[in-house]
Amino acid sequence: MDDAERYGIGELARRSGVPVKTIRFWSDRGIVPPTDRGPTGHRRYGPEAVARLDLVRTLRELGVDLPTVRRVVTREVTLPAVAAAHAEALAAQIRVLRSRRAVLTVIARRGSGPVEAELLHRLAGLAARERRRLVDEFLDATFRGLTDPGFAGIRRSLTPELPDDPDDEQVEAWVELAELALDPGFRAGLRRLAEQHADDRAGVEGVRRDAVAVVREEVAPALADGVAPASPRADPVLARATARYARLCGRPDDADLRRRLLDRLETARDPRRERYADLLAVVNGWPPAESLAPMLDWAVRALRARPARPAVG
């Protein structure tokens, strides 16, 4: 290589766009060493130094530390291996940032105080095993001791599974869902609903639908048609719903049964239950859950207006 193929540090800075001070700093650490020195002792660099500077600058902009950059350019480690390690490190940092962002978003939206903020931060930072333990304890409290064969599937349908690489919305939904799972009032309501469900099907063979599902099938068309719950047009709708519920639990369709059904629907109408379903859909990547609130409100109002089955004939 002749002198014409060597650059002084100023010329190298001009060709590469890297400041002289930075090139000198990297040269002193053996990352971009000079090819030789000229008669006056100044550093001189060959054409390959421009390409090396481009690589070093790219790695630094990607957050790779200088000792690792030196190992790459001296071929002590491969560039793909370094890239893979740093990509994983960045993924971990992104997960942490998403968690923090979710907590801050919820705190800002609610106007949370210090105690709630600390709880939200703790829930967001739970590891996968800790999340599983929290969910299992919540579902155990709901279904413990209830042996109906249908509860295994119901339990699975209530289980959140936060993915390994959740997006911001999923992290935020998980934080709120976990907080709900710790809410004693919500737990008690869900347990009561499970006990009512088990009581309705006691002594009945096979897996049977619950009161909410049975009533929904009768009420949804009437609701869509604009039938008012207290109007005469609602009478046959409610009669069909209570008759089906009576068959489900093996009881006569009378005033006691209507009080029983009203109790079930009022328990199911807890808005926290629907919120849990909405959050669960986000966490698990499921389609949005259908709102049951309008149907439950309609059925509750219709039952309150008709505490007893009208006499026939």
Q: From the alpha-carbon coordinates, what is the Rg to the nearest angstrom? A: 33 Å
What overall geometry do the principal axes of the alpha carbons give? Answer: rod-shaped
Strand content: under 5%
Largest sheet composition: 3 strands, antiparallel
Mean pLDDT score: 88
Q: Brief overview, please?
A:
The protein is mainly α. It is built from 15 helices and three strands.
Descriptive report:
The chain has helices at residues 9-16, 20-28, 48-61, 66-73, 79-110, 114-124, 128-143, 151-157, 168-181, 184-200, 211-224, 234-249, 255-268, 271-284, 293-305, and strands spanning 7-8, 36-37, 43-45. 25% of the residues are buried. The chain has 3 domains: 3-74, Multidrug-efflux Transporter Regulator, Chain: A, Domain 2; 78-125; 131-305, no CATH class. The protein is rod-shaped. A 3-stranded antiparallel sheet has the order 1-3-2. It has 15 helices and 3 strands. The longest helix has 32 residues, at 79-110.
Write the topology of this structure.
Layout: E1 7-8, H1 9-16, H2 20-28, E2 36-37, E3 43-45, H3 48-61, H4 66-73, H5 79-110, H6 114-124, H7 128-143, H8 151-157, H9 168-181, H10 184-200, H11 211-224, H12 234-249, H13 255-268, H14 271-284, H15 293-305
Antiparallel strand pairs: 1-3, 2-3
Helix pairs in contact: 3-4, 5-6, 5-9, 6-9, 7-10, 9-14, 11-12, 11-15, 13-15
Name some characteristics of this structure.
15 helices, 3-stranded antiparallel beta sheet, Multidrug-efflux Transporter Regulator, Chain: A, Domain 2, mainly alpha
